[in-house]
Automatic annotation (TrEMBL), chain A:
This is Transketolase. Gene3D superfamilies: 3.40.50.920, 3.40.50.970. SMART domains: Transket_pyr. Pfam families: Transket_pyr (PF02779). Residues 1-164 form the Transketolase-like pyrimidine-binding domain. One of its GO terms (molecular function) is magnesium ion binding. InterPro entries: PDH/Transketolase, THDP-binding, Transketo_C/PFOR_II, Transketolase-like_Pyr-bd. It comes from the Bacteria. The lineage of its organism: Bacteria, Bacillati, Actinomycetota, Actinomycetes, Micromonosporales.
UniProtKB/TrEMBL annotation, chain B:
Residues 15-219 form the Transketolase N-terminal domain. This is Transketolase. It comes from the Bacteria. InterPro entries: THDP-binding, Transketolase_N. PANTHER family: TRANSKETOLASE (PTHR47514:SF2), TRANSKETOLASE N-TERMINAL SECTION-RELATED (PTHR47514).
Length: 291, 228
C-alpha cells in the first residue's frame, strides 16, 4: 500500500499545483523524486512531527492542500494537539496518511505502534477516516481528497484482502444471512474465512468515519459484530447511536488495550489479539452461542 | 487613541498601556509595517501577523479595533457569552485574526507553513510576522520550527517579547552578554539574523521589523520584567 501511496501522491503533485507533501523523514527516500521535482511543495522537515502538522495547517491557511505522512504513532499520537489546534481549531484541513497503524511494525515494539489512532481522531470533529483493505482502494481515496479541503485520515496497513472493493465508503454486503458482521478494511478476509459456514451477514467498509450508520441500522437485526483493525470498541458509540431504540446485542472486536510485549510479525500479533481466522471464529461462536 | 481603546477594553486605570508588554510592538506593526487593512484582510498577498502568544490579547484586540478590523463595541464584552472576543483569540470569529491561539507553542509552526505556502504560490512580497513570549519559548515545538526555518532560509520575522517571564530564564553562557536572565534568547535562534530592541521605543521596533535578509529574522523586544 505504501508503494501505491507514493506513486499516486507523486502523480498528484505533478498534476495539481494546489497539493503539497510534508514529511518528517519517514518515507523521504521513496519520495526523493517528488522532493526533487517540487522543492516548494514537497517538503521534508526532518524528525519534527509537531512541525509537520503545524506546517500542514499553515499551508492549508494559504489555500493549499497538504498531505502529511509518517508512522501512525508519530503522526497521530505524538502530534495530537497540533492536529486538534493547528488543523481543527483553525478550521483548516489536511490529508494525513499513516503507515504502521496497530501492530504492523511488530518487531519494532510498542513505540512504533498505534492502535489508538482512530479513537484519538474520534475525539475531534470532522475527520473522515479511511482504512483501505487493498492497495487498489488507495488511489481513489488520495485523489478524492485533493478535491476538497476537509480533514481526511488514510490508514495504510501491511495486511490486505485478496481483492479490492473501490466503492467501500458505504457498507457493502458480501454475504447475506443472520446477524451482521461488519468488517473494516483488512479485517474482511479473516472475517470471511471465519464465517464461511456461519449464518451471518458480512458487510465491508473501508471508510469507518463517517460510519454508514444508516447501513448499520438497515442490516443489523438484533445482533451486530464489529471487527476493526484498531482499538477494540472504537466504533461502539456510533453503532450504539445507529441502533438507538432497537433492542440489540453487540460485540466489538479489535486490538486490545493491553500492550503485547512481544515482537514477531503482524500475523503473530493478529493471533495474540484474536483477530486471525481462528480467534475471530472463537469470539463469534461464543457470542452467537450465548444468544 | 489606542490608549482609550485599551482602557475601554480593560475597564480600569491600573491596566495602563505600559503594563501591556505587547502593545507597542503591535502598534508599530499595524501602524507602520504590515500591508493589511480591513479591506485587504482576505487578499492572498497580504502581509500576515500571527499572534502565537495568545495569552492576554487585550492589546491585540485594542489595536484591531483601532485599525478598524473590529467594532470598538466588541471590546466591552471580552470573554462573555456570544462575544467574538475570548481571552484567547479565535480566527474563525474575529476579522483580521490569522490564527486562533492560546495553547503556547503553535504560532511559529503555523507561521513556517504559511510562509512556505506563500512562497510556493509565488506570493514573495507577503511578509510573515509571528509574535511569541519569552516564556512561550519553553515549549519544545518552537525549537522544531526555529531550526527548520534556519535550515531552509525561510524569510519570516519572529518577535519575542522578553519580559523575563520564563521560569528558568534563557540565560546566556557567554560572559560578555550576561545582561539579564533572558540574554540568551538570540543564542536559541542559530542561523537567524537578530535585532534586539527596546520594546517600547517605536522607532527602534520599526527598524527591527523592517530588516529583511535572506534568512529568518528575530526581533527581541525587551520590556520591563513581568514580576518586577
Amino acid at each position: 500500500m505504501r508503494e501505491t501511496f507514493v506513486a499516486t501522491t507523486t502523480a498528484l503533485l505533478d498534476e495539481d499545483p494546489r497539493t503539497a507533501l510534508v514529511l518528517a523523514d519517514i518515507s523521504a527516500d521513496v519520495f526523493r523524486p517528488a522532493l526533487r521535482r517540487h522543492p516548494d511543495r514537497a517538503l521534508n522537515v526532518g524528525i519534527r512531527e509537531q512541525l509537520m502538522v503545524g506546517v500542514g495547517g499553515g499551508l492549508a491557511l494559504t489555500g493549499m492542500r497538504p498531505y502529511l505522512h509518517s508512522y501512525a504513532p508519530f503522526l497521530i499520537d505524538r502530534a495530537y494537539e497540533q492536529i486538534k489546534l493547528d488543523l481543527g481549531h483553525q478550521d483548516a484541513g489536511a490529508v494525513l496518511v499513516s503507515i504502521g497503524g496497530s501492530y504492523d511494525a511488530a518487531a519494532a515494539g510498542y513505540t512504533h505502534q498505534s492502535p489508538g489512532d482512530v479513537a484519538l481522531l474520534d475525539t475531534l470533529d470532522g475527520w473522515t477516516v479511511q482504512v483501505p483493505g487493498h492497495r487498489d482502494e488507495v488511489p481513489a481515496m488520495l485523489r478524492e481528497a485533493a478535491r476538497h479541503d476537509d480533514r481526511v485520515y488514510i490508514r495504510l496497513g501491511a495486511q490486505e484482502n485478496t481483492r479490492a472493493y473501490p466503492d467501500g465508503a458505504k457498507l457493502r454486503v458480501l454475504k447475506r444471512g443472520g446477524p451482521l458482521v461488519l468488517a473494516v478494511g483488512p479485517m474482511l478476509d479473516p472475517v470471511l474465512a471465519a464465517t464461511r459456514d456461519l449464518d451471518v451477514t458480512v458487510a465491508y467498509t473501508n471508510t469507518p468515519r463517517p460510519l454508514d450508520t444508516e447501513g448499520v441500522r438497515l442490516l443489523a437485526e438484533a445482533e451486530v459484530i464489529v471487527v476493526e483493525p484498531y482499538l477494540a470498541g472504537t466504533s461502539a458509540r456510533l453503532v450504539s447511536e445507529a441502533l438507538s431504540g432497537l433492542p440489540h446485542r453487540a460485540l466489538h472486536l479489535g486490538v486490545a488495550r493491553a500492550e503485547v510485549r512481544d515482537y514477531g510479525t503482524w500475523q503473530d500479533h493478529a493471533r495474540a489479539h484474536g483477530l486471525d481466522e481462528a480467534g475471530l471464529r472463537r469470539s463469534l461462536e461464543k457470542f452467537l452461542g450465548d444468544a | 487613541m489606542t490608549v482609550t481603546t485599551l482602557r475601554r477594553l480593560t475597564g480600569d486605570e491600573k491596566h495602563a498601556p505600559s503594563a501591556h508588554s505587547t502593545l507597542d510592538v503591535l502598534r508599530v506593526l499595524y501602524e507602520r509595517v504590515l500591508r493589511v487593512t480591513p479591506e485587504t484582510a482576505d487578499e492572498p498577498d497580504r502581509d500576515r501577523f500571527l499572534l502565537s502568544k495568545g495569552h492576554g490579547p487585550a492589546a491585540y484586540y485594542a489595536v484591531l479595533a483601532d485599525r478598524g478590523f473590529i467594532p470598538e463595541e466588541w471590546l466591552d464584552r471580552m470573554g462573555q457569552w456570544h462575544s467574538p472576543l475570548g481571552t484567547h483569540p479565535d480566527r474563525v470569529l474575529i476579522p483580521g485574526v490569522e490564527i486562533g491561539t492560546g495553547s503556547l507553542g503553535h504560532g511559529l509552526g503555523l507561521a513556517v507553513g504559511t510562509a512556505l505556502g506563500l512562497r510556493a504560490q509565488g506570493l514573495v512580497h507577503s511578509r510573515m510576522f509571528v509574535l511569541l513570549g519569552d516564556a512561550e519559548l519553553d515549549e519544545g515545538s518552537n525549537h522544531e520550527a526555529i531550526a527548520y526555518a534556519a535550515a531552509v532560509q525561510l524569510p519570516i520575522t519572529a518577535i519575542v517579547i522578553d519580559n523575563q517571564s520564563a521560569t528558568h530564564g534563557w540565560p546566556s553562557y557567554q560572559p560578555e552578554t550576561l545582561a539579564g536572565s533572558s540574554a540568551g534568547i538570540p543564542a536559541r535562534f542559530p542561523g537567524w539574523t537578530v535585532s534586539v530592541v527596546d520594546g517600547h521605543d517605536h522607532d527602534e521596533i520599526e527598524r527591527g521589523l523592517l530588516v529583511r535578509t535572506e534568512r529568518p529574522h528575530l526581533v527581541v523586544a525587551t520590556v520591563e520584567a513581568k514580576w518586577s
